[in-house]
Amino acid sequence: MTALERVGEGRWRSASEEATRRLGELLGALLEEGDVVILEGELGAGKTQLTKGVARALGAEGEVTSPTFNLLVSHYGGRIPLHHLDLYRLDPSSGQGELGEAGALDVVGEDGASLVEWGAPFAKLLSPERLEISLAREDAAPSRPEDLDAEPARVIVARGVGARGEALARALDAGEASW
Prior knowledge:
Strand content: 15-25%
Strand order of the largest sheet: 1-2-8-7-3-6-5-4
Helix content: 25-40%
Distance between the termini: 15 Å
Number of domains: 1
Order of helices and strands: EEHEHEEHHEHEEH
Number of strands: 8
CATH architecture: 3-Layer(aba) Sandwich
Mean pLDDT: 87
Oligomer: single chain
């Protein structure tokens, strides 16, 4: 198996953090001002690794870490700004209230591109045009003894919502074939 392999339309299997970052680099090369990407997956699924790849492709300055406690970190200095949000601690029943207090409504869909971890409950409030990416650890048990301590592979699925989201999903899927 290669480190990153396409396993279907809009679906990849990533065998390493670097492979997940590579998919993020491809996405970063496609992003434009106003693009919104919703990232979903359990803790440790690879959302921040994907964001690191996007930041690398954009040429963004600063270290990318999960903004769980800040809620929003903006990275500048690249082709376009990158706004990295983590909405894990927000209450979806608050509607736009907590989103506004966190500054999300000031940046999402505006200058730069926005990657939003744990954003699914807020997706419709954030943007009707978006790319939704889910990352999940693969459940398969290691087949070789030397793989017992290895991190499990990730399955990554991209789905576009709205015209721009669908265009991003198609371009991401088509771009993978050119590696």
